[in-house]
Prior knowledge:
Layout: H1 3-19, E1 25-27, E2 30-34, H2 37-48, H3 50-65, H4 86-106, H5 112-139, H6 143-150, H7 154-170, H8 176-182
Antiparallel strand pairs: 1-2
Helix pairs in contact: 1-2, 1-3, 2-3, 2-4, 2-7, 3-4, 4-5, 5-6, 5-7
Amino acid sequence: MKTKELVYAALFSALIAVLGLIPPLPLGFIPVPITAQTLGVMLAGCFLGRRMGALSLVIFIILIAIGLPVLTGGRGGLAVLVGPSAGYIFSWPIAAGLIGWYSEKIWPKLQTWKLLAGNLIFGVMLVNLIGAPIMALITNTSVWAGLAGALAFLPGDIIKAVIAAVITMQLKAISPIEEKVQG
Length: 183
């Protein structure tokens, strides 16, 4: 892996940490708050591609594990990685990798709606389909209750998916994916 790729991955880890500074929206009926950090997950995949996108989230999880307060609300540490948010957090590298894989496949004929579709499938549906059942398991509730509670994330997640697609289209010329396609 090139130094430039590691820098991109580290920068996106930092971006996701900065998105954690935006205060969370706690929901009374589900122990996982609404955060802006999933926007960073989608951006990492769309902009960086599969390998660097996933790596940026692996780095981010390592930062959480060593106790840095990089999650929304200043949370960090191993306790977070076994708490109700664990499934969501561990789904992020998978989501970024799959969004990146999809972005790389469609890059030559890139359109905003195609990026949006990838974000909705992998950045919204997949993250919730992994995160909600694990949250339900950890909180000792039914999987259906967890999935029903996760519906509260959909409006904000759809907005974040649109934002990530639009930003990526605007920055297409400087994306590492563009470099790979051109070079």
